[in-house]
Give the backbone structure.
Amino acid sequence: MKKTKVFFTILSLLSLYSLGQESADTVLLQEVTILSNRIEYFSDGAKKELLDSASLHFLPSSTLGDVLMYATPVLIRSYGNSGAAATISLRGAGPSRSPIFWEGFSLQSVTMGQTDLSLIPADAFNTIEIDHSASATQYGSGTFGGAISLSHRPQWREHSKASVYLSQASFGTYALQGGYSYGKESYELRGNLFYTQSQGNYPYYDYIKRDSMRRVNADHTSYGTIQQVHYKVSDKILTKAGLWYQVKQANLPAIMGANPYNFETQTDSSLRIFVEGLMCLSKGVLAVRSGLFSSYQLYTKKMRPTDERYSTYSEISSLQSHSHISYRYYPVSTVHIHAEGGVHVNQAEVDNYKDVEREQVYFGLAGIRYQKSGFKTHIGARKEFVAEQTIPLVYTIGLEYHFAEAPFAVRASTGKKYRRPNFNDLYWVEWGNPDLLPESGNAHEAGVTVQLIRKKSHELVFDFTGYYADITDMIMWIPVGSIWRPMNASHARLLGYEVRAKHRKDFSRLSLHQNFGLDVNHSHIVSLDSTHVIQGHSLYYVPKYSLSYFPTLSFKSWRFGASYSFTSERFYTYNRTLDSFFECSLFASLSMHTKKLSYMISFTAKNIFDAQYEYIRSYPVPGRSFALGLTFLFN
């Protein structure tokens, strides 16, 4: 035990001293120039998708869930309006198997094992990447569906700019956001401040009561800030640090069919801090990083608003610390070797746990990468150690080849994945199951990218990916007698393919950009211990077809855009489905400039055909809505 504490303390002190940065690398070891984190660097053969800047342009001050919902075909599970809780389910694997990372640190909840996308402001990051492959070697636990990485890449040049955004939208929605970026060749300071509030009082049709209703007790307020600093101490040492503080206060509206005048509230707050750095040595890069994440949630419920006492008063506090140290060695120009070790400490205090629960996760990983001409390949392995759990050794093998004489590239990857049970699965009083095993399984995929047109003013790129993955010992909450308990009761299979196409055409005064995405998902239950009835059944809330089309047109100072999406029917129980739906939204903006000030007027019309649909059973989404925004840019 003493050795464990000494090891953890040394890693933390090294990180605070900022000797190096795990998530950065340099091809030229004599000077910190081109940086690449290890998740990117050892992902040959992976299918990755950068979020297009046009979607961020037309959706300012939006949450990550909103941007992904309108700009991609990935599956978002929203509980109603834009301020309501939302999660992501990549490849139908579910939110606990589709983690979100900020600068390489996991944002997954210790207790529930998932991330609320409504708590993530998309404008705070200049790089949002969907890693559909997401190897367990690099990310760790719970990446069967994929992962999303949020980060900021500094410009490393002299610049100074600031912005202020104001907007008013339907249903009593207001937003205020400010941002700045200041830097020179050796450092950069960047920050965002944001505030939103909404009444969320939109009309909807309650098909259970068979009556037109208006959403009440659905208001929310959210505010916070994200600050980052990048600094080159010398031509061989680089440091980076970040802070993210946020609070969201919300009233929770009733579901369809229930009394709309219920009284439920939820407050979420979090503080996240990290520090990283790297040091270039003669033939390698030494890197160290550390992070401390604290979160708090308060949920209350009254049977009637006039009641003096709460029927439910639940507090959840969690604390996570991360410490990593790594070294990347370059014996020759074509071979790179990476080794890393670290410890994650997770702690949670929950009213429905018997005690304050704590776990220490130690891990080690190693990988080797080879690249020459258009060929790249890597092999990696990772092992975690957790008390009273047996975590399997996982591996990843990936390769890709870019043909020199042909406009296409091929890729493939294979590996083993796993997911540890979350704290609610293990420790919830009377319902939790401390004997749960980690989920495990193999994942395979292959893809091809073809550049059909490659000209200065005209581009067309097509991408196709097919994937197959098994999840054994899948954790599901099932009835055991009179209560529901999490059990390793299922074997699931993720199966499908993804199609992407990007098109750009520049005319004399016009510029046309088009993004198309289609996900076809055949994911299903292979077996379930408690019953044979649903064997072969589709996973719940997973559509077979999900399609998105996002065209934009630029003309002088005007920009126009549209979002078209289609989602096929989804099962929410064994024999009942949510209807398929088609949604269309329109966007427009006008930019104007003076010597010292630029400003932009933006207009948004969402769900213009006033479609009535649900992402989750009994949680209606808003109908037609409008937003008007004004952005000031100071250079």
Observations:
- Residues 2-17 form the longest helix (16 residues).
- The helical segments are 2-17, 38-41, 53-58, 64-71, 136-139, 423-427.
- The radius of gyration is 24 Å.
- Residues 1-35 have pLDDT under 50 and may be disordered.
